[in-house]
Design brief:
The structure is a single chain. By secondary structure, this protein is an alpha+beta fold. It has a domain of about 110 residues: 2-Layer Sandwich (Heat Shock Protein 90), CATH 3.30.565. The protein has eight helices and five strands, in the order H-H-H-H-E-H-H-E-E-H-H-E-E. A five-stranded mixed beta sheet has the order 1-2-3-5-4. Strand 4 and strand 5 form a beta hairpin. The longest helix has about 90 residues. The chain is elongated and about 130 Å long.
Length: about 260
Protein backbone atom coordinates (compact mmCIF):
# COMPACT_ATOMS: atom_id res chain seq x y z
CA UNK A 1 0.00 0.00 0.00
CA UNK A 2 2.71 2.49 0.85
CA UNK A 3 4.38 1.49 -2.41
CA UNK A 4 1.19 2.34 -4.32
CA UNK A 5 0.98 5.73 -2.58
CA UNK A 6 4.61 6.36 -3.43
CA UNK A 7 3.97 5.56 -7.08
CA UNK A 8 0.93 7.85 -7.13
CA UNK A 9 2.96 10.73 -5.63
CA UNK A 10 5.77 10.08 -8.07
CA UNK A 11 3.28 10.04 -10.97
CA UNK A 12 1.81 13.35 -9.81
CA UNK A 13 5.26 14.88 -9.53
CA UNK A 14 6.37 13.59 -12.93
CA UNK A 15 3.10 14.74 -14.50
CA UNK A 16 3.42 18.16 -12.89
CA UNK A 17 7.01 18.49 -14.08
CA UNK A 18 6.00 17.48 -17.60
CA UNK A 19 3.07 19.92 -17.64
CA UNK A 20 5.28 22.67 -16.21
CA UNK A 21 7.96 21.90 -18.79
CA UNK A 22 5.36 21.92 -21.53
CA UNK A 23 4.05 25.29 -20.34
CA UNK A 24 7.56 26.73 -20.17
CA UNK A 25 8.35 25.31 -23.62
CA UNK A 26 5.14 26.75 -25.02
CA UNK A 27 5.93 30.15 -23.48
CA UNK A 28 9.45 30.06 -24.92
CA UNK A 29 8.10 29.13 -28.37
CA UNK A 30 5.49 31.91 -28.17
CA UNK A 31 8.16 34.41 -27.10
CA UNK A 32 10.40 33.35 -29.98
CA UNK A 33 7.50 33.69 -32.42
CA UNK A 34 6.65 37.10 -30.97
CA UNK A 35 10.28 38.21 -31.19
CA UNK A 36 10.52 36.96 -34.76
CA UNK A 37 7.37 38.85 -35.72
CA UNK A 38 8.64 41.94 -33.89
CA UNK A 39 11.98 41.81 -35.71
CA UNK A 40 10.18 41.28 -39.00
CA UNK A 41 7.92 44.26 -38.25
CA UNK A 42 10.93 46.43 -37.37
CA UNK A 43 12.70 45.30 -40.53
CA UNK A 44 9.64 46.12 -42.64
CA UNK A 45 9.40 49.48 -40.90
CA UNK A 46 13.07 50.20 -41.62
CA UNK A 47 12.60 49.17 -45.24
CA UNK A 48 9.53 51.38 -45.55
CA UNK A 49 11.41 54.29 -43.98
CA UNK A 50 14.35 53.72 -46.32
CA UNK A 51 12.01 53.58 -49.32
CA UNK A 52 10.25 56.76 -48.13
CA UNK A 53 13.55 58.59 -47.69
CA UNK A 54 14.71 57.39 -51.12
CA UNK A 55 11.49 58.59 -52.76
CA UNK A 56 11.66 61.85 -50.81
CA UNK A 57 15.25 62.40 -51.95
CA UNK A 58 14.30 61.62 -55.54
CA UNK A 59 11.38 64.04 -55.30
CA UNK A 60 13.66 66.72 -53.84
CA UNK A 61 16.16 66.23 -56.67
CA UNK A 62 13.38 66.48 -59.25
CA UNK A 63 12.08 69.64 -57.59
CA UNK A 64 15.59 71.11 -57.53
CA UNK A 65 16.07 70.25 -61.21
CA UNK A 66 12.77 71.94 -62.09
CA UNK A 67 13.73 74.94 -59.97
CA UNK A 68 17.12 75.24 -61.67
CA UNK A 69 15.45 75.05 -65.10
CA UNK A 70 13.05 77.77 -64.01
CA UNK A 71 15.89 79.97 -62.68
CA UNK A 72 17.92 79.45 -65.85
CA UNK A 73 14.96 80.48 -68.00
CA UNK A 74 14.23 83.51 -65.81
CA UNK A 75 17.84 84.71 -66.00
CA UNK A 76 17.94 84.19 -69.76
CA UNK A 77 14.54 85.73 -70.54
CA UNK A 78 14.53 88.63 -68.10
CA UNK A 79 17.95 89.52 -66.71
CA UNK A 80 19.77 88.46 -69.88
CA UNK A 81 17.58 90.61 -72.10
CA UNK A 82 17.89 93.62 -69.79
CA UNK A 83 21.68 93.35 -69.68
CA UNK A 84 21.84 92.93 -73.46
CA UNK A 85 19.81 96.11 -73.81
CA UNK A 86 22.10 97.87 -71.32
CA UNK A 87 25.13 96.81 -73.39
CA UNK A 88 23.61 98.32 -76.52
CA UNK A 89 22.66 101.49 -74.64
CA UNK A 90 26.18 101.83 -73.22
CA UNK A 91 27.69 101.56 -76.70
CA UNK A 92 25.36 104.34 -77.87
CA UNK A 93 26.09 106.46 -74.78
CA UNK A 94 29.85 106.19 -75.38
CA UNK A 95 29.42 107.63 -78.85
CA UNK A 96 26.68 110.12 -78.02
CA UNK A 97 26.34 110.96 -74.31
CA UNK A 98 22.75 111.71 -73.38
CA UNK A 99 21.35 112.30 -69.89
CA UNK A 100 18.01 110.63 -70.69
CA UNK A 101 19.78 107.58 -72.07
CA UNK A 102 22.03 107.38 -68.99
CA UNK A 103 18.93 107.43 -66.75
CA UNK A 104 17.39 104.61 -68.80
CA UNK A 105 20.58 102.59 -68.38
CA UNK A 106 20.45 103.13 -64.61
CA UNK A 107 16.82 102.02 -64.51
CA UNK A 108 17.51 98.87 -66.54
CA UNK A 109 20.51 97.93 -64.40
CA UNK A 110 18.41 98.52 -61.29
CA UNK A 111 15.63 96.32 -62.66
CA UNK A 112 18.14 93.58 -63.49
CA UNK A 113 19.39 93.72 -59.89
CA UNK A 114 15.82 93.48 -58.57
CA UNK A 115 15.12 90.48 -60.82
CA UNK A 116 18.30 88.72 -59.69
CA UNK A 117 17.46 89.37 -56.04
CA UNK A 118 13.95 87.98 -56.51
CA UNK A 119 15.30 84.89 -58.27
CA UNK A 120 17.83 84.34 -55.47
CA UNK A 121 15.05 84.60 -52.89
CA UNK A 122 12.87 82.06 -54.65
CA UNK A 123 15.81 79.63 -54.84
CA UNK A 124 17.02 80.03 -51.26
CA UNK A 125 15.55 77.21 -49.15
CA UNK A 126 17.16 78.46 -45.93
CA UNK A 127 15.35 81.78 -46.36
CA UNK A 128 12.11 79.87 -46.79
CA UNK A 129 12.68 78.36 -43.33
CA UNK A 130 12.48 81.86 -41.86
CA UNK A 131 9.52 82.99 -43.97
CA UNK A 132 5.85 82.19 -43.60
CA UNK A 133 4.56 80.09 -46.46
CA UNK A 134 1.93 82.74 -47.26
CA UNK A 135 4.62 85.44 -47.46
CA UNK A 136 6.77 83.25 -49.73
CA UNK A 137 3.80 82.66 -52.07
CA UNK A 138 2.99 86.39 -52.02
CA UNK A 139 6.57 87.28 -53.01
CA UNK A 140 6.48 84.74 -55.85
CA UNK A 141 3.24 86.24 -57.18
CA UNK A 142 4.64 89.77 -56.90
CA UNK A 143 7.69 88.73 -58.90
CA UNK A 144 5.48 87.25 -61.63
CA UNK A 145 3.21 90.30 -61.56
CA UNK A 146 6.11 92.68 -62.15
CA UNK A 147 6.43 91.28 -65.67
CA UNK A 148 3.23 93.14 -66.54
CA UNK A 149 1.89 90.08 -68.36
CA UNK A 150 -0.21 88.65 -65.53
CA UNK A 151 -2.58 90.02 -62.93
CA UNK A 152 -2.87 88.08 -59.70
CA UNK A 153 -4.97 87.77 -56.56
CA UNK A 154 -3.91 86.23 -53.26
CA UNK A 155 -6.58 85.31 -50.72
CA UNK A 156 -5.55 84.04 -47.28
CA UNK A 157 -8.07 82.42 -44.94
CA UNK A 158 -7.73 80.94 -41.47
CA UNK A 159 -5.16 81.62 -38.79
CA UNK A 160 -1.53 81.90 -39.90
CA UNK A 161 -0.45 80.50 -36.52
CA UNK A 162 -1.75 77.10 -37.59
CA UNK A 163 0.68 77.02 -40.53
CA UNK A 164 3.63 77.33 -38.14
CA UNK A 165 3.01 73.66 -37.33
CA UNK A 166 4.03 72.77 -40.89
CA UNK A 167 7.48 71.20 -40.70
CA UNK A 168 10.26 72.62 -42.85
CA UNK A 169 10.40 69.67 -45.25
CA UNK A 170 6.70 69.91 -46.02
CA UNK A 171 6.92 73.69 -46.34
CA UNK A 172 9.65 73.42 -48.98
CA UNK A 173 7.75 70.73 -50.90
CA UNK A 174 4.53 72.78 -50.81
CA UNK A 175 6.29 75.95 -51.97
CA UNK A 176 8.06 74.15 -54.83
CA UNK A 177 4.70 72.65 -55.89
CA UNK A 178 3.23 76.16 -55.96
CA UNK A 179 6.24 77.41 -57.95
CA UNK A 180 5.90 74.60 -60.49
CA UNK A 181 2.16 75.22 -60.81
CA UNK A 182 2.76 78.92 -61.46
CA UNK A 183 5.46 78.14 -64.01
CA UNK A 184 3.04 75.82 -65.83
CA UNK A 185 0.59 78.72 -66.05
CA UNK A 186 3.28 81.05 -67.40
CA UNK A 187 4.49 78.53 -69.98
CA UNK A 188 1.29 76.84 -71.14
CA UNK A 189 -1.93 78.50 -69.97
CA UNK A 190 -2.01 81.74 -72.02
CA UNK A 191 -3.71 83.23 -68.98
CA UNK A 192 -4.25 86.81 -67.87
CA UNK A 193 -5.24 86.25 -64.25
CA UNK A 194 -3.75 83.97 -61.59
CA UNK A 195 -5.74 83.50 -58.41
CA UNK A 196 -4.22 81.79 -55.36
CA UNK A 197 -6.19 80.98 -52.22
CA UNK A 198 -4.50 79.70 -49.04
CA UNK A 199 -6.62 78.30 -46.21
CA UNK A 200 -5.23 77.19 -42.85
CA UNK A 201 -7.24 75.03 -40.45
CA UNK A 202 -6.09 73.30 -37.28
CA UNK A 203 -5.27 70.10 -39.21
CA UNK A 204 -3.98 71.14 -42.64
CA UNK A 205 -3.05 73.87 -45.06
CA UNK A 206 -4.69 73.98 -48.48
CA UNK A 207 -3.65 75.97 -51.53
CA UNK A 208 -5.83 76.46 -54.60
CA UNK A 209 -4.25 77.87 -57.76
CA UNK A 210 -6.60 78.96 -60.54
CA UNK A 211 -5.97 80.55 -63.92
CA UNK A 212 -8.26 81.86 -66.64
CA UNK A 213 -6.21 80.31 -69.42
CA UNK A 214 -6.94 77.93 -72.26
CA UNK A 215 -7.24 74.83 -70.07
CA UNK A 216 -6.80 71.28 -71.37
CA UNK A 217 -8.36 67.84 -71.40
CA UNK A 218 -6.96 65.77 -68.47
CA UNK A 219 -7.66 62.57 -70.42
CA UNK A 220 -5.08 63.40 -73.09
CA UNK A 221 -1.32 62.92 -73.08
CA UNK A 222 -0.97 66.67 -72.65
CA UNK A 223 -1.80 66.13 -68.97
CA UNK A 224 1.43 64.16 -68.48
CA UNK A 225 3.43 66.51 -70.69
CA UNK A 226 2.64 69.36 -68.31
CA UNK A 227 4.24 67.47 -65.43
CA UNK A 228 1.04 67.61 -63.40
CA UNK A 229 1.42 64.00 -62.29
CA UNK A 230 4.61 65.08 -60.48
CA UNK A 231 2.54 67.56 -58.50
CA UNK A 232 0.32 64.71 -57.30
CA UNK A 233 3.32 62.59 -56.34
CA UNK A 234 5.04 65.39 -54.45
CA UNK A 235 1.90 66.23 -52.52
CA UNK A 236 1.60 62.55 -51.60
CA UNK A 237 5.24 62.57 -50.42
CA UNK A 238 4.25 65.28 -47.95
CA UNK A 239 1.36 63.15 -46.71
CA UNK A 240 -1.24 65.16 -48.62
CA UNK A 241 -2.94 65.15 -51.98
CA UNK A 242 -3.33 67.31 -55.07
CA UNK A 243 -6.23 67.40 -57.51
CA UNK A 244 -6.24 69.01 -60.96
CA UNK A 245 -9.44 70.20 -62.62
CA UNK A 246 -9.41 71.60 -66.16
CA UNK A 247 -11.27 71.62 -69.45
CA UNK A 248 -10.53 73.30 -72.78
CA UNK A 249 -11.37 76.99 -72.68
CA UNK A 250 -12.13 77.05 -68.93
CA UNK A 251 -8.73 77.41 -67.31
CA UNK A 252 -7.19 75.13 -64.71
CA UNK A 253 -7.49 74.75 -60.95
CA UNK A 254 -4.89 72.91 -58.88
CA UNK A 255 -5.91 72.14 -55.29
CA UNK A 256 -3.32 71.00 -52.75
CA UNK A 257 -3.96 69.80 -49.19
CA UNK A 258 -1.04 69.12 -46.84
CA UNK A 259 -1.50 68.02 -43.20
CA UNK A 260 0.79 69.69 -40.67
CA UNK A 261 1.96 66.38 -39.19
Amino acid sequence: MPNDQYQEVLLVIVTSVLVLGLLIGTMVVLMLIYQKKRFRHLEEKRNMQAAYEKNLLQSQLEIQEKTFEHISREIHDNVGQLLSLVKVQLNIALKRPDEELINEIKQNVGQAMVDLRDIARSLNASRLHQTRITDAISEELQRIGRSGVFSYELIVGGNAIFAESLNEQKKIILFRIVQESLQNIIKHASANLIRVRVDMTEEEISVQITDDGVGFDPNTLEYYGLGLENIRKRAAMAGGEATIASSPGNGTTISIQIPYV
